[in-house]
C-alpha cells in the first residue's frame, strides 16, 4: 500500500482579484522509502501541494476538497492535535531558505533538542546528545562544539544540513524538501543531495523533493511528478519522464534546456508564450495557449491517460506520434 | 569577432570595509574582488562563472563604473576609464549598459513600460517627442514585446517579459557592450531559453559584445565564446569555451563541472563525481596561499604557502595552479 496517497486535492486562495485555484484536483501516490521529485514552473502549485499535505494552509488559503491518505489515515480528517503529532514526528519538512525556519535567537542544538524532546519525549541531556549525534550524521565538523552555535554562525550549506538534521531527528516516514538546495552553490548542493540519499538509505524515509532543477531530479528521484497550472501534467519514473515524455509541456521543458552534453552552438528551443495566469485559466488544457499540437478538443477538460507501467499524462494526444499543428510557432 | 580588446581589466580589486562596535571601527575587509585581470574582445561573449559571493556582480559593477574600484585599471576601447569624471562616465553609459538578474526589483513599479524603456533616451537627449515614441516602440518590438504594452505597468508582466523590458531599456542608447548579470537566473526554465535566444540574436544583429555573468555552467557554455572561472575574488582559469569544458585544468573547474547534475537518468553513474569536501570560505579571511587549498584534492605543501599566479599553458588558456604548473595535472 502506498505510504501517501493524495486524491483530488483542491486548494484555493482568495486574492484581491478573485479566487485562484492553486492546486486543482491533483492526485498522486508515493510508496514507503521512495523518492518523488516534483517539478514545474514558479506558481505551478508545488509548494501549495506540500503545505496542503502538512495542513499548513492558512487564510486566505483553503483546502477545498480532496483526501490525503498517509499511512492509511486521511490527514484532512484528523483533529488539530493529532495533526500536530504527525507534523514533525511522522512527516517533516525542510524549506528553501533555512534562515526562515531556524530561530535566530536559539542555538542550533537547542532547536534540534526541542524537536526531539517534543516528539520523542527525551529529557534535556538525552536530547542534547541526540542533537550532537544528528549534527555528526549530517557531517558538521566538531559537532560537540558547533551544537552551541547560533544559525548565523553557520554557512548556507551548514544551515541546510542542520535543517536536515532537525527534520530527520524524529525518524519521520516522510520528508518533504521544498527546494532544499536552490540557495546553495553546485559543489555544496552535491554534498547535500548525497547526504539526503545516504540518510534515506539508512532510515528508509520516503522523500518528496521539490525543485525546478531537472538535473537534480534525474539524479536523485525514482519517480517524477511534473506540474503545470496547479495540476499533474505528467507522472512516471525518471526514465519515462526524461527519456520518453508524452506530454508536450514535459517534452518542451526538456528540449529547452542548455545541456552540457549537447553541441555548444545548438540553438535552444524555447517553449513559446508565458506561464499560465491562475486568474485566467483556459477552459481545457492549461498548456493549450503554448502548445504546438493544440486541437479543438484541447479546449475541453483533459482527463489523465494511463500509458501503462505507472506512466500517466494529462494530454488529449499523449498516445499519438505528435506532429505540430499548422504553422504554430 | 576581432582580436582587438574592447575591454581590458588589469589587477582589479574591490575591498569592502567591515566595521564593528559602537564606533564603527574598521576591523577587516571583505576582499570581494582580489586582483582580477581579463579582456573582452569586440564581438565576443566572455562568460564569468563562479559560485554565489565569488565577486561576479562586483566586477560587473566596477566595469560599468557603478561602483568605484579599490585599485586596478579598466580600459574601454583603449582608453583608461579608471579615473574619468562624472560627465565622462555619463557619456560612457551610452556605450556600455547592464542587464540585471532580478526582473522584479530592477523595474520601477510606478513607471509604465513605455516610460521605463524611453527614460535613457530622455536622460541622454537622444530623441524627443514623436521620434522618442517611435524609437520606444521599435525597441519593444526588438525584444519581442508589442506597442500595446507601452502603457502597462511592470506588475502586469511575467518574469520573462520583465526581463525583455530590462533588455529593451539597456538597448535604448545603442550600447556596444553589455554586462549581463545573471539575466536568466530568476526565470523559469521554459522561459530562460527564450531570453537566451533573444540575447544571441541581438548580439548578432547589433554587433554587441557581452560580459555574461552566471553561476550556471550549462548556460554559460551555451552562450560564451570564452569563459573565466572565479573563486573567492580570484580568476582560477580562463580559456576558449571548448578548452574549458572539454579539457578543464584547474581542480576547482573540474569539480564544478563534475557537480552539475545531468537531466538524463540514462547517464547517471557514467560520470565520475569528485565530491568536494568543506564549505566555501568567507572572502573576509580567504585561506593562505592558494585560496582553494582547504578543499582541493590535489593540494600539496606549497599550496598553503604560495599563491599560484595565472600562467598561460596553451594558446589562450591560462590557469593559476601549482599542480598544473609542475605537471601533476595536465
Ligand atoms: N498565501 C498565499 N496567498 C495567495 N496566493 C498564494 C499564497 N500561497 C501561494 N499562492 C498562489 O498559489 C499558486 C501556487 O503557488 P506555489 O507556492 O505552490 O508555487 P510553486 O510551484 O511552489 O512555485 P515556486 O517554484 O515559485 O516556488 C501561485 O499562484 C501563488 O501565487
Ligand atoms: N556593498 C557591499 N558591502 C559589503 N560587502 C559586499 C557588498 N557587495 C558585495 N559584498 C560582498 O562581496 C562579495 C562578492 O559579492 P558579489 O560580487 O555580489 O558576488 P556574486 O555576484 O559573485 O554572487 C561577497 O562576499 C559579498 O557579500
Ligand atoms: S491536451 Fe492538447 S493542448 Fe494540451 S498538451 Fe495535449 S495536445 Fe497540447
Ligand atoms: S594550487 Fe594547489 S591547492 Fe590550489 S588548485 Fe592547484 S593543487 Fe589545488
Ligand atoms: Mg515554491
Ligand atoms: Mg551576483
Description:
- The complex is a heterodimer of chains A (329) and B (330).
- Chain A has 329 residues and is of the alpha/beta class.
- Chain A has helices at 46-53, 80-89, 98-101, 108-120, 124-137, 143-146, 156-168, 186-203, 214-220, 238-243, 248-256, and strands at residues 4-15, 18-30, 35-39, 61-70, 73-74, 91-94, 174-178, 206-210, 223-228, 231-237, 305-306, 312-313.
- Chain A has an 8-stranded mixed β-sheet with strand order 6-7-8-3-9-10-12-11, with helices on both faces.
- Chain B is an alpha/beta fold and 330 residues long.
- Helix content of chain B is 29%, strand content 25%.
- Chain B is built from 10 helices and 12 strands.
- Chain B has helices at residues 56-63, 86-92, 113-123, 129-142, 159-171, 189-206, 217-223, 241-246, 251-259, 322-325, and strands at residues 5-20, 25-41, 45-49, 71-76, 79-80, 96-99, 177-181, 209-214, 226-231, 234-240, 311-314, 317-319.
- In chain B, the strands form 2 sheets. An 8-stranded mixed β-sheet of chain B has the order 6-7-8-3-9-10-12-11, sandwiched between helices.
- The radius of gyration of chain B is 21 Å and the shape is globular.
- The two termini of chain B are 30 Å apart.
- At the A-B interface, helix 8, helix 9, helix 10 and helix 11 of A face helix 5, helix 6, helix 7, helix 8 and helix 9 of B.
- One magnesium ion is lined by residues 46-47, 178 of chain A.
Amino acid at each position: 500500500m502506498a505510504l501517501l496517497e493524495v486524491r483530488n486535492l483542491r486548494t484555493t486562495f482568495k486574492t484581491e482579484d478573485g479566487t485562484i485555484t492553486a492546486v486543482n484536483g491533483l492526485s498522486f501516490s508515493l510508496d514507503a522509502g521512495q523518492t518523488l521529485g516534483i517539478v514545474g514552473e514558479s506558481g505551478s502549485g508545488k509548494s501549495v501541494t506540500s503545505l496542503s499535505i502538512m495542513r499548513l494552509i492558512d487564510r486566505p488559503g483553503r483546502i477545498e476538497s480532496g483526501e490525503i491518505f498517509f499511512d492509511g489515515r486521511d490527514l484532512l480528517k484528523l483533529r488539530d492535535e493529532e495533526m500536530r503529532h504527525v507534523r514533525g514526528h511522522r512527516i517533516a519538512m525542510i524549506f528553501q531558505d533555512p534562515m526562515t525556519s531556524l530561530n535566530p535567537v536559539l542555538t542550533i542544538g537547542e532547536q534540534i533538542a526541542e524537536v526531539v524532546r517534543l516528539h520523542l519525549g527525551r529529557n534535556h541531556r538525552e536530547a542534547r546528545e541526540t542533537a550532537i549525534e544528528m549534527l555528526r550524521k549530517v557531517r558538521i565538523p566538531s559537532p560537540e562544539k558547533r551544537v552551541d552555535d547560533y544559525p548565523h554562525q553557520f554557512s548556507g550549506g551548514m544551515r541546510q544540513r542542520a535543517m536536515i538534521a532537525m527534520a530527520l531527528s524524529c525518524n519521520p516516514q516522510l520528508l518533504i524538501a521544498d527546494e532544499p538546495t536552490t540557495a546553495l552553490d553546485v559543489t555544496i548542493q552535491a554534498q547535500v543531495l548525497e547526504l539526503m540519499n545516504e540518510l534515506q538509505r539508512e532510515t528508509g524515509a520516503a522523500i518528496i523533493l521539490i525543485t525546478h532543477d531537472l538535473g537534480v531530479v534525474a539524479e536523485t528521484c525514482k519517480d517524477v511528478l511534473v506540474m503545470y497550472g496547479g495540476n499533474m501534467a505528467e507522472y512516471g519514473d525518471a526514465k519515462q519522464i526524461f527519456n520518453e515524455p508524452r506530454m508536450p509541456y514535459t517534452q518542451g521543458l526538456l528540449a529547452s534546456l542548455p545541456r552540457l552534453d549537447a553541441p555548444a552552438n545548438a540553438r535552444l528551443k524555447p517553449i513559446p508564450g508565458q506561464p499560465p495566469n491562475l486568474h485566467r485559466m483556459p477552459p481545457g488544457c492549461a498548456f493549450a495557449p503554448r502548445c504546438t499540437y493544440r486541437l479543438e478538443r484541447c479546449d475541453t477538460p483533459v482527463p489523465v491517460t494511463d500509458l501503462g507501467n505507472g506512466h500517466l499524462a494529462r494530454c488529449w494526444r499523449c498516445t499519438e506520434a505528435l506532429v505540430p499543428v499548422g504553422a504554430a510557432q | 569577432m576581432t582580436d582587438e580588446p574592447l575591454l581590458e581589466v588589469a589587477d582589479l580589486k574591490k575591498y569592502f570595509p567591515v566595521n564593528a562596535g559602537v564606533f564603527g571601527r574598521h576591523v577587516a575587509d571583505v576582499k570581494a574582488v582580489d586582483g582580477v585581470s581579463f579582456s573582452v574582445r569586440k564581438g565576443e561573449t566572455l562568460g564569468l562563472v563562479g559560485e554565489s559571493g565569488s565577486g561576479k556582480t562586483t566586477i560587473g559593477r566596477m566595469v560599468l563604473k557603478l561602483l568605484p574600484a579599490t585599485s586596478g585599471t579598466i580600459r574601454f576601447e583603449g582608453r583608461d576609464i579608471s579615473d574619468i569624471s562624472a560627465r565622462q562616465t555619463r557619456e560612457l553609459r551610452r556605450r556600455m549598459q547592464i542587464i540585471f538578474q532580478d526582473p522584479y526589483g530592477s523595474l520601477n513599479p510606478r513607471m509604465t513600460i513605455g516610460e521605463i524603456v524611453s527614460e535613457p533616451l530622455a536622460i541622454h537627449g537622444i530623441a524627443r517627442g514623436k521620434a522618442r515614441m517611435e524609437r520606444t516602440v521599435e525597441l519593444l518590438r526588438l525584444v519581442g514585446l508589442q506597442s500595446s504594452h507601452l502603457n502597462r505597468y511592470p506588475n502586469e508582466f511575467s518574469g520573462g517579459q520583465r526581463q525583455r523590458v530590462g533588455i529593451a531599456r539597456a538597448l535604448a542608447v545603442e550600447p556596444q557592450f553589455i554586462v549581463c548579470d545573471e539575466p536568466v537566473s530568476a526565470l523559469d526554465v521554459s522561459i530562460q531559453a527564450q531570453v537566451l535566444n533573444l540575447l544571441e540574436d541581438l548580439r548578432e544583429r547589433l554587433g554587441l559584445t557581452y560580459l555574461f555573468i552566471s553561476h550556471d555552467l550549462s548556460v554559460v557554455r551555451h552562450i560564451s565564446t570564452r569563459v573565466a572561472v572565479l573563486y573567492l575574488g580570484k580568476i582560477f582559469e580562463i580559456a576558449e569555451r571548448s578548452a574549458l569544458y572539454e579539457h578543464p585544468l584547474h581542480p576547482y573547474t573540474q569539480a564544478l563541472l563534475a557537480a552539475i547534475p545531468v537531466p538524463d537518468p540514462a547517464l547517471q553513474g557514467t560520470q565520475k563525481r569528485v565530491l568536494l569536501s568543506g564549505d566555501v570560505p568567507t572572502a573576509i579571511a580567504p585561506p593562505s596561499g592558494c585560496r582553494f587549498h582547504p578543499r582541493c584534492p590535489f593540494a600539496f605543501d606549497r599550496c598553503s604557502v604560495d599563491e599560484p599566479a595565472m600562467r598561460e599553458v596553451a594558446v589562450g588558456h591560462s590557469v593559476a595552479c601549482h599542480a598544473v604548473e609542475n605537471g601533476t595535472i595536465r
